[in-house]
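Supplementary Methods. Inverse-folding protocol.

Structures were first reduced to a discrete structure-token string of length 222. This string, shown here, constituted the complete conditioning input.
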């Protein structure tokens, strides 16, 4: 609750500053474009791939960036997976939100809050045998939430890394617990995230290679 409250307070304050000329805004607008394209185009056509063409006939056949087209003139973005667009679209649908920057800001801030909780949890279990685990966890929370990169990239700017910030921490926590306990659930979560994370963002592939080498060293007793 402390982490969520802190993130919510920071998010509200930052949003009220009216920072509309923020860097990398094209990532946010690109996401909103795809969400709107999901709404305007039949799921039978786009299959929730990262479509960039809206529903009108005049919007078809317009290429831009790293896209490829189908036989109906719809263009699809190829550099990132659909997961980063599909999840906020689901969020908007569940809470009946309009396709606006403020709606995406709410979704992004929730991801920020969840990641803050996971970060504090990770620190706490690592230092669980220390008398200073609470103090260290609080320091970790403050440095995490007040990080300029996260205040920007998990607030005003949304991109696939916002989801990865949550999913990768889940994988790291599961990995740590998997090596310190015999719970089958931790192994299931870890290997599930090993499959899911690369589908969210390319960092998932790199993380899996790192986990693989670390696991080998652990098994060898290094």
């Amino acid at each position: 609750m402390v982490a969520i409250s802190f993130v919510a307070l920071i998010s509200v304050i930052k949003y009220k500053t009216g920072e509309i000329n923020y860097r990398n805004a094209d990532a946010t607008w690109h996401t909103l474009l795809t969400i709107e394209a999901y709404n305007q185009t039949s799921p039978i056509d786009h299959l929730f791939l990262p479509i960039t063409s809206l529903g009108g006939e005049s919007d078809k056949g317009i290429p831009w960036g790293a896209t490829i087209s189908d036989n109906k003139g719809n263009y699809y973005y190829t550099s990132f997976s659909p997961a980063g667009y599909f999840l906020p679209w689901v969020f908007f649908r569940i809470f009946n939100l309009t396709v606006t920057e403020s709606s995406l800001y709410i979704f992004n801030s929730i991801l920020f809050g969840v990641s803050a909780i996971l970060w504090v949890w990770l620190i706490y279990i690592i230092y669980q045998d220390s008398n200073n685990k609470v103090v260290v966890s609080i320091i970790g929370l403050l440095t995490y939430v007040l990080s300029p990169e996260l205040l920007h990239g998990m607030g005003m700017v949304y991109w696939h890394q916002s989801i990865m910030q949550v999913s990768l921490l889940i994988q790291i926590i599961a990995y740590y617990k998997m090596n310190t306990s015999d719970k089958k659930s931790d192994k299931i979560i870890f290997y599930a995230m090993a499959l899911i994370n690369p589908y969210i963002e390319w960092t998932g592939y790199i993380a899996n290679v790192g986990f693989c080498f670390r696991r080998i060293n652990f098994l060898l007793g290094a």
